[in-house]
UniProtKB/TrEMBL annotation:
Lineage, uppermost ranks: Bacteria, Bacillati, Actinomycetota, Actinomycetes, Streptosporangiales
Compartment(s) where it occurs, according to its Swiss-Prot or TrEMBL record: Cell membrane
Listed InterPro entries: MFS (IPR011701), MFS_dom (IPR020846), MFS_trans_sf (IPR036259), MFS_Transporters (IPR050171), Sugar_transporter_CS (IPR005829)
Main location: membrane
Any one cellular-component term (Gene Ontology): plasma membrane
Species, as recorded: Sphaerisporangium rufum
Pfam families (alphabetical): MFS_1 (PF07690)
TM annotation in the entry: 79-98, 104-127, 139-159, 165-187, 207-226, 246-268, 275-299, 305-326, 338-357, 363-385
Protein's UniProt name: Major facilitator superfamily (MFS) profile domain-containing protein
Domain of life: Bacteria
PANTHER family: MULTIDRUG RESISTANCE PROTEIN MDTH, RESISTANCE PROTEIN MDTM, PUTATIVE-RELATED-RELATED
Membrane topology: Multi-pass membrane protein
Stretches assigned to the Major facilitator superfamily (MFS) profile domain: 1-386
Alphabetical UniProt keywords: Cell membrane, Membrane, Transmembrane, Transmembrane helix, Transport
Record-level Gene Ontology MF annotations: transmembrane transporter activity
Length: 388
């Protein structure tokens, strides 16, 4: 099979492109959280207080994911998606109006929860409507839209921030409402699939499935390593005497590579088994961050970034697709919520875990071991996945 036989953009249903357009608009408008810490510093809050606010947002996201998954399966994908987006918009306005630390923490937590609610519904809608063979490409394309929007958002937010933080709040809230309108206009109302009441339902059923639990555990491990781009890499580059702009260029390289190669790479690799490609992705992520250990110059960090970016691209396309393959009918919301929950947990835990390992001089070795463990586990798990 050649690359030309696998379309980059064709063969995906209309509903997917509605979500793609909404994701692009929504991510372009996502300006509040990236600049929240900077804004709170300017308002005189301490590092500990800012950490509390950001942690509240992370905890809210952890709580919102399972709620969103249940709602998506019990109420419907469309209603949950629209409700979560409207709630996110309201929480953004509340966060922008908050002044004291308690109000900031509460509204940040509510914002995280609202954001967590609509993500499983969107993923479930993709799993419902996209043919199984095209799911890696579809989930990869959503990741692609996320990065295009993020690249444009960073530039626009930097310009708007000079005129006031409220502009960021207004744009972010409007983007969420725009996504909700796009979904309302472009997605037909759906009805939850009737479930067999004689069998365990929801999260009980998912967590009794050993194959699913193994995939989720390995995904959590891979995401814990990947999250070191936000914590371990800045520390290591600063220790090597590199300026903050070098880290900024590294993240720009990461986003640029995703924008340039993600559609082509995922279209080509989608011929291979999902778990095999996930195993390769986990190895690449682990190896890429392990290569950051001996790196000292900016170009060396850049070479390592090419490796872990390739792993990120694979993980984004094949992770959710594999979970969808393992999901019983009518349960995509809860299963995708569990998969999304691994990312939320990794984002919350990775800074403290990375700090402990970095201070002990073991962070990059741990990344290498985690990547190797992910690859080996994928090989061992493959027979069980093939039997499904």
């Amino acid at each position: 099979m050649t690359l030309t036989r696998r379309p980059l953009f064709g063969g995906l249903p209309r509903v997917f492109w509605v979500l793609f357009g909404g994701q692009l608009v929504n991510r372009f408008g996502a300006m509040v959280l990236p600049f929240l810490a900077t804004t709170l510093v300017a308002r005189g809050f301490s590092a500990a207080q800012i950490g509390l606010v950001m942690s509240a947002c992370g905890l809210g996201r952890l709580a919102g994911q399972p709620v969103g998954g249940l709602l998506a399966d019990r109420v419907g994908r469309r209603a949950t998606l629209i409700g979560g987006l409207v709630a996110t918009s309201a929480c953004l306005v509340a966060l922008g109006a908050a002044r004291g630390l308690p109000a900031l923490a509460v509204t940040a937590g509510a914002l995280g929860a609202a954001g967590g609610i609509y993500h499983p519904a969107a993923a479930a809608l993709v799993a419902d409507t996209v043919p199984a063979e095209a799911r890696p490409r579809a989930f990869g394309m959503l990741h692609w839209a996320f990065n295009i929007g993020a690249a444009l958002s960073g530039v626009a937010a930097g310009l708007l921030l000079a005129h006031g933080y409220w502009l960021l709040v207004a744009v972010d809230a409007a983007a969420n409402l725009a996504f909700a309108v796009i979904v309302a206009a472009g997605v037909r109302p759906d009805r939850p699939v009737a479930r067999d009441r004689r069998r365990p339902a929801g999260y009980r059923r998912a967590l009794r499935d050993r194959v699913v639990v193994a995939v989720l555990a390995l995904s959590l491990l891979g995401k814990l390593v990947y999250e070191q781009q936000r914590f371990g890499l800045p520390l290591a580059m600063a220790a090597d005497g590199l300026p903050g702009s070098a880290y900024g260029l590294l993240i720009t390289l990461n986003a640029g590579l995703i924008v340039l190669v993600q559609p082509v790479l995922v279209a080509w690799t989608s011929r291979f088994p999902r778990l095999a490609m996930l195993g390769v992705s986990w190895v690449l992520i682990g190896a890429g961050f392990a290569l950051s250990g001996p790196a000292a110059a900016a170009w060396q960090y850049a070479l390592a970034a090419v490796v872990w970016t390739a792993g990120e691209i694979g993980m984004a396309g094949f992770g959710a697709a594999l979970v969808a393959d393992l999901t019983p009918e009518g349960a995509h919301g809860t299963y995708q919520a569990l998969y999304g929950w691994t990312g939320a947990l990794a984002a919350l835990v990775a800074p403290s875990a990375g700090a402990a390992l970095y201070d002990g001089g073991a962070l990059w070795w741990a990344c290498a071991v985690a990547g190797a463990l992910g690859g080996l586990s994928a090989v061992l798990l493959a027979p069980a996945v093939r039997r499904r």
